[in-house]
Design brief:
single chain; mainly alpha; 72% helix; 0% strand
Length: 138
């Protein structure tokens, strides 16, 4: 027996088993180059290397983006917490302003407002009746 290549051996075995789909090795339309593993050529090696570099760059870019995103979120959370603390401090200071009942009544009567609106206007101006009246009437 001559040494059979893998495809030829397959066809030969199929014929021996009596399978009708088997053809003789002479009839096989088979190109030996198709069965050979792909040889590394400059073009496909370059292509493979380019793909590896691209994958690496995308992975690195994604990691950098994740780190940058996390840093940005951390910074935004700190800013938000700082703003909330400052707002609370302002509200506590505003609530601590002592208002004269007489000033509240005068402002309420002058601008035809509710007691809450008059108190708020006075607190916005640190209890200064004249400043509150000027701000409202201007």
């Amino acid at each position: 027996h001559p040494i059979l290549t893998t495809p030829s051996l397959f066809i030969h075995i199929m014929a021996k088993e009596g399978r009708p789909e088997a053809a003789s090795p002479d009839d096989a339309e088979f190109d030996e180059a198709d069965a050979a593993p792909a040889k590394k050529t400059a073009s496909n090696v370059g292509s493979i290397e380019t793909e590896k570099v691209t994958d690496f760059a995308i992975e690195k870019e994604t990691k950098v983006d994740e780190v940058t995103l996390q840093q940005t979120l951390t910074m935004l959370n700190k800013v938000a917490m700082s703003e909330r603390a400052a707002q609370e401090k302002r509200m506590l200071a505003r609530d601590a302003i002592k208002l004269s009942r007489e000033d509240v009544n005068i402002l309420r009567d002058e601008i035809d407002a509710t007691e809450e609106e008059a108190e708020s206007a006075l607190k916005d101006h640190n209890g200064d009746l004249v400043a509150a009246l000027r701000a409202i009437t201007v």
